[in-house]
Amino acid sequence: MDDGLDDLDGRILYALQRDARHTSAAEIADEAGVAPSTVRKRIARLEARGVVRGYHVDADYQRAGYQLHALVTCTAPIDEREQLVHEALDVQGVVSVREVMTGEDNVRVTAVGTDHDDLNRIAQELSAVGLDVTDENLVRGEHVRPFDSFAHDPDQS
Amino acid sequence: MDDGLDDLDGRILYALQRDARHTSAAEIADEAGVAPSTVRKRIARLEARGVVRGYHVDADYQRAGYQLHALVTCTAPIDEREQLVHEALDVQGVVSVREVMTGEDNVRVTAVGTDHDDLNRIAQELSAVGLDVTDENLVRGEHVRPFDSFAHDPDQS
DNA sequence: TATGAAAGGTTGAACCC
DNA sequence: GGGTTCAACCTTTCATA
User: Which residues get their CB within 7 angstroms of nucleic chain D?
Assistant: First the structure.
């Protein structure tokens, strides 16, 4: 499984990061000056290599009725961490889990809930799983940016 | 702009969270027992309301050659925060910025870089913007989960 | 690995209930 | 709100260099 992404791969990733649903292979191909089928094959390869793990909608949970977006900071013993992380993903309301390499707080959970009780439930379930919940913070706003280091110069072919 | 998502909206969001690129409106419509155009209209409405902010590829930065994925913890004065957050988004390598409501560390930045020097650059640029960088941690792995509280029961119409 | 062509599926828009 | 139709577009598959 050789890696090493070239310019075309970069352009594809950049385009898909901006809009993964409404960007067709043909559009990317036009900008890059290659055939649409070439772009499709590259996308398939990126998926097969695991560079592309999936495509997700970026939903505003606040507007979706889930008013509370929280960051839960946890600590897990290193030897159990991998297991605990997977169990944490099954807790209702959890949307992402990150394993942090350095520091005490080595697991960071993002979750959304309908109200404060719901967040309490999530924290309790994480504790029940075996994670030591050390802190919990509400998120006011989240801003995502398409990672554009892939694109060498978006406005030129 | 009235909110309140019904069952169909929930199904749509759930489907798009699982795979925003390869899930057609017709597929969702089949499962929900409505016409494809109804689903398309709902999607358009969710986008117009701002519930759906966009669709992004979930890329494994490690495999993409950006070996270092970091969480940068920052502090910003409340009255400047909004402005600083937007400037932080323009720093090369930054992929997301969260505004945290509670606690000292009220801005959490996620960034990816090619090497340690690159991460140092990012931290320096965030400082230059005016953010007080209080901590920086490397991420070993990130796991995202489709938020399934929308789906009442995926295997039944 | 990139390209081209035919078949089948998907989308968006206009129109009706 | 939801549904139908249709032209334009996209993707899939296969064959080709």
Answer: A 24-27, 36-37, 40; B 8, 22, 34-38, 41-42, 45
B101, A49: Cβ pair inside 8 Å?
Answer: no
Which residues in chain B are closer than 8 Å to A45, comparing Cβ atoms?
none
Q: What is the CATH number of domain A68-138?
A: 3.30.70.100
Interface of B with A in 95-124 (CB under 8 A): 95-103, 108, 112
All CATH 3.30.70.100 domain ranges of chain A, comma separated, are 68-138
Q: Which residues of A touch B20 (CB under 8 A)?
A: 20-21, 55-57
In chain A, ranges of CATH 1.10.10.10 domains: 2-56
Tell me, what's the pLDDT at A146? 85
pLDDT tens-digit profile of A54-104?
A: 999 999 998 998 999 999 999 999 999 999 999 999 999 999 999 999 889
Task: Give the per-residue SS3 of chain B.
Answer: CCCCCCHHHHHHHHHHHHCCCCCCHHHHHHHHCCCHHHHHHHHHHHHHHCCEEEEEEEECCCCCCCCEEEEEEEECCHHHHHHHHHHHCCCCCEEEEEEECCCCCCEEEEEEECCHHHHHHHHHHHHHHCCEEEEEEEEEEEEECCCHHHCCCCCCC
Please identify among residues 54-73 of chain B the ones whose CB lies closer than 8 Å to any CB of chain A. Answer: 54-61, 63-66, 71
Q: What is the architecture, at CATH level 2, of domain B2-56? A: Orthogonal Bundle (1.10)
B64 vs A148: CA distance, rounded Å: 13
pLDDT reported for residue A153? 47
Q: pTM of the entire structure?
A: 0.90
